Amino acid sequence: MEYFVKPDSVVRRIWGKADTVLFIFAGSAAEFALNKAVDWLYFTGKLPADPLGRLFSTVEYARRIVFAERATAEHAIDTIVGIHAAVEQQRGRRIPDWAYRDVLFMLTAYSIRVFEALERPLTAPEREEIVDVFYRMGQRMGIPEVPATYAAWQQARQAHLTHDLVVSSYTADLYRQYRRHLGPLRYGLVLQAQRLVAPPRVRELLRLGRWPWLAPALPLYRATQHLALGRWARASLMPARYRAQILTLDGAPVLASPRQLQAQ
Known about the structure:
mainly alpha
């Protein structure tokens, strides 16, 4: 049986563990707010109405592709393309290619940064594996100029951080929505996670600060993550309506049909 991502790939380890997925979620939430194309997500109204649900949807699509057979994964990617094409038709404009690349860069970057923050340094072949998965995803989506190697990705990523992020009215509004949907305590925890995994340019633009108090607590968290206490801590990071989703983040997802994916 041929899979989109090899069963023994580090990518499956990253995206099959609730801890890493939640930190990828937190880092992605920061960059979504700075992306120059975030107006596309405001156009549909889904992002400001339910920012957590919109980000969970992005994460869930990535997880399903990572764990699916090749044909199923490619069908899911085609579904993503179809959804975006429908939005483009409604707005009468095309989503820029660089906007798609920025999202792939974000998923690649936080896969690397989060795993290394929570687990261990990645080997050179493991970094290449991560880049390759999102490169192939971009190829299937028809996105040009997606870097195929880690070295090329590093250069493109740095250019993205320098030129494609901006503080806008959407940034402020999105963070207001995060706070409203999370509540003050959970919002504070997400800010700590962002300080831990966001690159310096993102921290600078969002004025997140440099020193998260979460970092010294990580050894204790690692020691308890497999216990009931660790599962409770993870589930408590998000409002009750998302806790069932969080509890299913450990291990491979239950794969939905393309029709079910499109309805989400």
